[in-house]
Each structure stands twice: as structure tokens, then as C-alpha cells.
Efflux transporter outer membrane subunit
Amino acid sequence: MRDFAVPEYRVREAHLRGISTKLRLAAAAAAALALSGCADRWERPALGVDTPSRWKDAGASSAVWPDASWWRDFGSAELTSLIQEAERSNQDIGAAKARIEQADAQVRINGASLIPVIQGSGDASLQPGPNGRGTQRQYQVGVDASYELDFWGRNRATVRSAQASAQAARFDEEVVALGVVSDLANTYFALMSAQERLAIARSNVTSAQTILDAIQGRLDVGTASALDRAQQRAILDQQRATIPPIEQEIRVNETAIALLLGRPPVRVSIKGGRLAALKTPRVRPGLPSELLLRRPDVRFAEANLAATDADITAARAAFLPSFGLSAQGGFESATLRSLVDRSSLAYQLAASVTQPILDQTLPGNLDLAKGQYRENLFAYRKATTQSFVDVENALIAVRKTAEQVRLQEAAVKSAREAYDIARAQLKEGAVDIVTVVNAQQTLFTAQDNLVTARLARFQALVSMFEALGGGWAASGRPAGGAPLPAFNVPKVAAR
């Protein structure tokens, strides 16, 4: 027997390989610990919302929050009917409701990780026997089950994130619905304003024609000049020229309402009326802190913030080991008769532990979740501040437009009185045509400004309702409204 000596360099190489392996394992363990340590370095920023204790432009009167159907307070049955139809048929509201369905489905998808996955299987095979003699049959039936232990709460965090997103989708639907209702009310009031301005313009044309006839009569008897007649004819032509743009405005507002209703313009006919015939609803904000619970856009931002907070929890838990359980069981036999038999039973149980070591996506995912949280935090802060700004703007707009209407009504009254006196004196020959023309133009302008002021007042009231969150918090129904109607695919006739 020969004694083979091991060369010294091979001993050193083996020793170095052992050291290298230990170093790699130590480095891997250190990397795993480092990755796990990354999950602990997170301090949640404070919300930092400055909520005032009072409103700058509000009086000391008690709050009058909007109710669920605040638009009824204007006293227009047609407006109420249009808004109810828009809530049913508006395309943007329908799309927002569809997003709620998607968010609910995502909750179910994420929630599936909290329960075991169970699958059944069955198999039957037929193949030639040994040496091509006969056939061999094999039947199998089994059940596989697997389950990941949510030891660190990662799966529960993903479910919470999906639930918060689903709630955000419901608040978003309320934001969309409130915007649609407000747009419809504002457009309806703009259409009524245009109708009233059109009636005033036509009345002014009639008045201008009457004065022109009077001037023509004085010209026939030699008490007026051709210049007087030309000046009045110019005023008459100017009044006639104001009619087409107003008629166009009416049609444009009708088509805008048709879009909000989800109908083609040819299917929409608006009766309208006079703004002066509408009621002026009472609405006053309560405490600013109460406003944050009424505004669906603030609640939407809050829900998004909660969703990304849960995403951070899930991203941190991804650094830690995951534990899994699996089980397989079933029967295998060459004949169906003995398939479900104790001797044919086979099963397997297994447990596993997985620890990420060098996965550079984990720190990136965590930083991404943190960045999204901070983004939503700033969005939440802006939404709260914007809600306070909207209410303050609406408060001063309601107060100042009411004052403007009151002053403009007095201006119309004075202008009408002056015009009536000037027209009577013109027939008697006591004043010249210049005096009548000036009084006429003053009245025309005052009347048109009064209608514009009334429109601004009612639109300011709508802005107040919108700034206070509409009637969402007073509706007594879950966020998201009624479910989507059944989708029916239209039948296409065969050609």
C-alpha cells in the first residue's frame, strides 16, 4: 500500500475555501440583519393640521348645515328633478361607482392571503405494460393546501391598505357627485339668468322702438331733427344686437346640462324661469373642526393617507422571515375500486422559512411607500386648508353678493323712475331727446346688472353648499351612494 501525501498548497486552498464560505455566510447574515434593520428606521410625521377655532367672516349665529337634498331649498321643482336624474345617469358618477367596485374587489384579493389556498386535483393515465404486454392504469386524486403564517402582520397590512383605498373610492364618489350637482345647479342658474336677460333685452327693444316712433312723430311736425331719429335708431340697433349672444348662451347652457344628465342635447328641454322667483336658502357653517368630518375630499385624502401608512407596515414586514405551511394528501391506485382505500393513502406535511438576504427591491419598496405617505400627507394638509379657504371665500361671497343685489335693485328702481319721467316729458315736448336717451341707457344697464348680481348671489350660495361638503354627512347613507345599475349589452340586429 502506498502512502499518498497531500500537497501543502491543497491544504491551504481547502482551508481558504472554508474561510471564504464562512465569510460569505457571515456577510449574508449581516446583509439580512442590515435589511431587517432598515425596516425599523421609520418615524411617522405629525399630521400638522392647523384647525382654527372660528371663521373670520362668520357671525355669532348658530350653524345651519346643509341637509341631504340641499338643492330643494331653492324652491325649483325642475332643478330638483334635473339633479335627481343626474345622480342616476351622470357618466362621471357612474365611473366613480365602478372604481368602488374595483376597490372592493382588491380588498377580497388581498384578503385571500389570510386564508389557506386549497386546490383539488385528479388524474387518470393509461400506458403500455412491460414488453408491450397489456396496459397499466393509474388513478390519482388529491388535495393540496398551503398557508403563509402572517407572523409580522404583512398580509393584514395589505388588507388594511386595500380597505382604506376602498373607503377612499367611496369618498371620491361623493366628491364627484357633489361636483356634478354643484355644476348642474350653477349651469341651471346661468341658463335662468340668460333667459331673464333675454326677456329684458326684448323689452328694451320694444321700449326703444316706442321712443323711435315718438321721435318720428315729432320729426313729422318739425319738433325733432333727423339727428335725434338717427341716435335713437342706433340705440335700437344696439339693443337688437344684444339678443343673439344671449340666445347662444341659453343654448350652450342647455347642452352643458344635457352632458351632466348623460343625454344628447336634442333630448333635453329646460323650462327655466326668473331668478327673482327662487327662494334664498339659509346656510351657515359650524365649527371648523366639524367641517373636516363633512367634506368628502378631506375624508378622501385621509383614507389615502391611511392606505399608504399600511403600505409602509407591509414594506417593513417584507424584510423579516416568512413562514409557510403546506400539506398534500390523496389516493393513488391502479383500479378505481381501490382508489379510496387506506392502503392507497399518501400525504406529506411541510413547513418552510424564507429570509430575504440580498434583495435590493425591499429597501426601494420601503422608500417608495414612505415617499407616497409623505405625498399623501401633504395632500391631506392641503385638503384641510383648502376646505377652510373655500368656506371663508363662500361666506364673504354670500354676504357681498346679497349686498350687491340689494343696492342694484335700488339702482333699477331709480333708473326706471327717471326713464318713465323722461319718456312722459318727451311726449309733452318738455325735454330733449338726449335726456331720454341717457335715461334709457341707464335703465338698460341697471336691469342687466341686476340679473348678473342675482346670478352671482345664487352661485355663491351653491359655492357655500359645496364648501360645507353638501349634504353627504347628513344623508344617513354609506359613502358611495346607490349601486351601479345592471349593465345590459344592446342587441345588434343582424344584417
Summary: The chain has a mean pLDDT of 83. The domain at 52-115+153-319+357-467 is CATH 1.20.1600.10 (Outer membrane efflux proteins (OEP)). The radius of gyration is 39 Å. The chain has ten helices and four strands.
